C-alpha cells in the first residue's frame, strides 16, 4: 500500500463518526490535497471549546464562518464577536467563484451558496439589537472583580448591595451605583454607620474612580434596561436553522475593559440560567470570540481566574467557546488546556521571537509520523490549516494539514441598505431598543435626600418660630417689669408734687411767723 493510501486510511478511520458531524475540509500530504480524506468535527464535541489561530490574512475568519454556517444548518445557534466588522455577509449567499469550485473539487465536497438567519447585536450606539445588563444582575462579587477591587473595597460593594436590597432600591445603571456610594459617606453616613459600621470615604473614592474608568469606555450604554435575555440567543427559524447572532464590536477595539466586562457578565448569566445538559448529542450554543487577546491582555488576575473557572464549567451547560486569535500564546495556558478543537493556520517566522513562538505552538499538537509540525506551520497557504479535534469518545483525532472548505455565504459585509432591511425585520430590535429609565436608586435617593432636607428645613423653621415666640414673650415680660418699676405710687406722687410742697412750706412759714 502506498504512503498516500496509508495516509487516506489513517485520516478517514481516525475521523470516522456515528453521529452528526461538520466536514471542514480534506487532509493534505506533501502539499497535495487527498480528495475524500475528509477532516470531520463531531457535532457532539462542539461544546468542548476550541481555538482558531494564525497570522493575519491566513483564513482564520473564513474558518470561523464555515463552522458557524454548518452549526446553523444543523439547528445550533451561534454567537459571533465581530471585532473587525467583516462577518455580517453571512446574511447573504456567496456570489460564487471559479476558485471556490476548484477548491471544492479538490476537497471532494459539494458547494452550495446559502444565506443564513442572522441577528445583528451591539453594545454601543451602532445599529443593532442593544445588549444591556443591570448592576443588580452583576451582583457584588462579579462587579468587584470587573473593577479589580481590594478585599476592603469589595466588602463595601457588598454592603451597598445589601443596603439596596433591604431598602428596595433598584440598582440598574452606573448613576444608581455612583449615587449610593456618595450617599453612604455623605447624607446617609449616620444611617450606614449605625447599620453597617463606618464606611471610609477613601475607599468609596477609589471605587468611584474605577467606575469612572469603566464609564469612559462606554459602559454607561451597557448598564441599564431593557436587560438582554440570554434565552434569545437560542432561537431557531421556521426551517429549524439556528440563528447566527453577530455582535458588532468594531468601535470598542480600544475599550478592552468594556469587552471583558460584557463577556464575563454574559458567560456568568449563561452559566447561571442554562440547565445542565449531561452527555448531549449537540451543543445548545456555540460562541466565537474574535481577537480574543482583547479579553486576556487587559484582564486582572481576579478576572482571569473567573474566566478560567467559567470556561471549565460552562461546557456542562452545552455551550462551546471558541477563541480566535493570531497566536495560541495569546490565550492563558489554563484556558488553552481546556480546548478540544484546534484549527491552526499559518504562522510567520520573521524574528527569533516568532520562531520560538512557533516551536511552542507545535507542542500543542499531537505528534504525527506524516508531518514535521514546526515546518508545516510556516508553509501552510491561505485557507489551509492544521486541524486537531476530539472524536466522539473525547480522544484526539489524527493531526491533519487541511485544505479548508469555503464559506457558503458572502465573504464580505452587508451594504447599508441590506443592514437596514435586516434590522427592520428583527423582532429583537423591537424588544430591546426602547430606552427605559424607570425610577431606581438614583431617583429614590434623591427623593429621600430632598424629603430629609425639607423635613430639616421644616424643623428648623419650627425651632426658629418657637425661638421668636420665646424672645417676644421675654421682651414683653421685660417691658412690663420696666413699666412696673418706673410707675409712681399716687400717694408718693401727691406728697412729692410741687403744689403739695408749696402748701406745706406755706403752712410752716405762717406757724413760724406767729
Automatic annotation (TrEMBL):
One Pfam family named in its UniProt record: HerA_C
So which domain of life are we looking at? Answer: Bacteria
Q: Where is this region: Disordered?
A: 465-484
The UniProt entry, under Gene3D superfamilies, shows:
P-loop containing nucleotide triphosphate hydrolases
Alphabetized InterPro entries for the sequence: HerA_C, P-loop_NTPase, T4SS_component
Biased composition annotated in UniProt, kind: Basic and acidic residues: 465-475
Annotated Helicase HerA-like C-terminal domain residues: 34-504
Q: What's the protein name?
A: DUF853 domain-containing protein
The taxonomic lineage of its organism, from the top, reads:
Bacteria, Pseudomonadati, Bacteroidota, Flavobacteriia, Flavobacteriales
